[in-house]
Amino acid sequence: MDLQELVNAHQSRLSDTEREILAFMLNNEEFVADSTISALAHRTFTSTSSIIRLTKKLGFSGFAELKFFVKNSLAGPTTPPIDFLESGRNDILTTYEGLMATDFTPIVQKIDTARTIYCYGTGFAQRTAIQEFSKSLLTCGKFTHVIPASTEFRGSIGVMKPEDLVIIASLSGETESALPTVRALASRKVPMIAITALGVNSISAVAEHALHYESTPTVTSIHTEPFHSFVTLSVLLDHIVRQYIQYLDLKEKDS
Question: If you count Cβ atoms within 10 Å of the first and of the last residue's Cβ in the chain, which end, N or C, has fewer?
Answer without folding.
Answer: C
